[in-house]
Specification:
single chain; 157 residues; alpha+beta; Glutaredoxin; four-stranded mixed β-sheet; 6 helices; 4 strands; 50% helix
């Protein structure tokens, strides 16, 4: 009788251990592929290109959502042709996601912000933190002009 209970207990531990190992592997697989493709693969174009990245971490407040909307609007309204041709790329990256923490160091990020990266023939040549977007949050024309001036500068237009 005692031998049966010991065998049952050992089998139960083996089954539960196997389930825990399987669950951990599935969790690791799902998080390894959770990164958005836009951050992994950027289109390479000849000549000048601007990567406009809104770096976030965690949830977005109303102001953060407004910055994202205004940034996207600048790309779509003022640079539709460059956006369609891959000369301008807009993306949002959550630095809290696995695999994206290196951007914190790369761009010296201290908060949510828009970074404009100038690329020439697929290689980054310079970048600028567009931190003034926070000051222009309630001035849509000023916001568009601020981002637009630097994008045009990088694109040489």
């Amino acid at each position: 009788m005692i031998a049966k209970q010991i065998v049952r207990s050992i089998l139960l531990v083996v089954v539960l251990g196997s389930l825990a190992i399987w669950a951990n592997r599935e969790y690791q697989k799902s998080h390894a592929s959770a990164a958005p493709a836009a951050a992994k693969t950027l289109p390479i174009v000849a000549g000048d290109q601007v990567i406009m990245t809104y770096f976030i971490s965690g949830t977005l407040c109303k102001s953060c959502q407004k910055i994202e909307a205004l940034t996207k609007e600048t790309a779509k309204k003022d640079f539709a042709e460059a956006l369609a041709g891959g000369k301008l790329v807009f993306r949002v990256i959550d630095t809290g996601e696995p695999g994206y923490q290196h951007f914190i160091k790369d761009y010296q990020l201290t908060s949510k912000t828009v970074i404009l990266s100038h690329r020439k023939d697929g290689k980054e040549t310079e970048w600028k933190d567009m931190a003034k977007v926070w000051e222009l949050l309630d001035d849509a024309p000023g916001f568009h002009a601020y981002l637009g001036e630097q994008i045009r500068n990088y694109l040489g237009t």
